[in-house]
Structure formats: C-alpha cells, structure tokens
C-alpha cells in the first residue's frame, strides 16, 4: 500500500512538472510568434527587405483581400519582399495586435489586427518552427477602413 502511495505521488509530481514545463514553453513560443509577426510588420513599414526576408519562409504566401479596391492580392514571399524593397509596399507606421495564438506541435496560427489611423488589416498568420525559429508560412488578411 505504501508503494502504491509513493507511485501515485511520483506520478502526480511528474505530471505536474510536465504540465508546468509545457505551459512555460507555450508562453515562450507565444512570445516568439508575436515577435516574428511584429518584426514582419515593422520591417514592411520601414521597408527593410533584408530583415523582412528573415521572418518568412521562401515558400510563404501573402494574401490580402482589399475591401477598398475589391482586389485580391496574392504574392509569394519573394514577390512581396521585392515589392517592399522597391518601395511599392510599406513606408508607413502601423500598430500590431496579436489577439490569439493557437499551437499544434511546430505550427501556429495567430489572429492579428494591424492598424493605423485610416486602415485596418485583420486576419491570420500561419507560422512553422523551422530549425528552432518561428517563420511565417502564410498570411491571409482583409484590408478595410479603420472605423
């Protein structure tokens, strides 16, 4: 009976430590994901194409549904980075708010709002953990007036 109690206690302690460790890593990963998204947006805003390219996978897709022009923009990562580099995208200052991040192993989906005084871009970023670093694999957002 005493052995059973010790076994139960040890099992409880191991489960508690495991839950604590998992929660700690999720919090750290959440911060890392938020940092990558913020860095992506700030590098677009400052037109820093070199740093921007470090936040996205080469195979990433950047999709924006523009409610103002009724266009759907769909760019590969390299196309988007080149648009930023050539001054065709970016050059403004926006605020980034990550409202939620959900994890499934080495993938994450974040709900994001990017705003300035006139416009709001809201939607989702999909990220993957690539060699220990989070990278953006895709972005799908809607651009509209900030009401």
Walk me through what this model shows.
By secondary structure, the protein is an alpha+beta fold. It has one domain: Roll (Nuclear Transport Factor 2, Chain: A), CATH 3.10.450. Helices cover 39% and strands 41% of the residues. The chain is built from three helices and six strands. It has helices spanning 2-45, 49-53, 77-85, and strands at 56-66, 71-76, 95-104, 107-115, 119-130, 133-145. A six-stranded mixed beta sheet has the order 2-1-6-5-4-3. A hairpin with a 4-residue loop joins β1 (56-66) and β2 (71-76). Mean pLDDT is 88; it is low at 9-25.
CATH class: Alpha Beta
For the largest beta-sheet, the strand count, sense and barrel status come to: 6 strands, mixed
The percentage helix is 25-40%
Structural shape: globular
> Widest sheet: strand order?
2-1-6-5-4-3
Give the number of helices.
Answer: 3
Give the tally of structural domains.
Answer: 1
- The arrangement of helices and strands along the chain is HHEEHEEEE
Strand content: 35-45%
Total strands: the figure is: 6
Query: What name does CATH use for the topology?
Result: Nuclear Transport Factor 2, Chain: A
- Distance, first to last CA: 67 Å
Question: What is the average per-residue confidence, as pLDDT, rounded to a whole number?
Answer: 88
Characterize the quaternary organization of these chains. Answer: single chain
Could you name the ranges where pLDDT drops below 50 across 5 or more consecutive residues? 9-25
What is the C-alpha radius of gyration, as a whole number of Å? 20 Å
* CATH architecture designation: Roll
Helix-strand category? alpha+beta
């Amino acid at each position: 009976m005493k052995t059973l109690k010790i076994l139960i206690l040890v099992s409880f302690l191991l489960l508690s430590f495991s839950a604590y460790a998992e929660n700690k890593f999720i919090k750290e990963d959440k911060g890392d994901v938020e940092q990558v998204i913020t860095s992506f947006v700030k590098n677009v805003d400052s037109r820093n194409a070199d740093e921007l390219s470090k936040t996205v996978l080469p195979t990433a897709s950047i999709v924006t549904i523009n409610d103002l022009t009724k266009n759907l923009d769909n760019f590969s990562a390299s196309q988007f980075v080149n648009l930023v580099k050539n001054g065709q995208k970016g050059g403004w200052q926006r605020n980034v708010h990550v409202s939620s991040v959900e994890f499934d192993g080495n993938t994450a989906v974040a709900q994001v709002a990017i705003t300035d005084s006139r416009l709001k871009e809201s939607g989702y970023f999909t990220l993957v953990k690539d060699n220990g670093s989070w990278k953006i694999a895709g972005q799908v957002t809607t651009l509209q007036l900030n009401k």
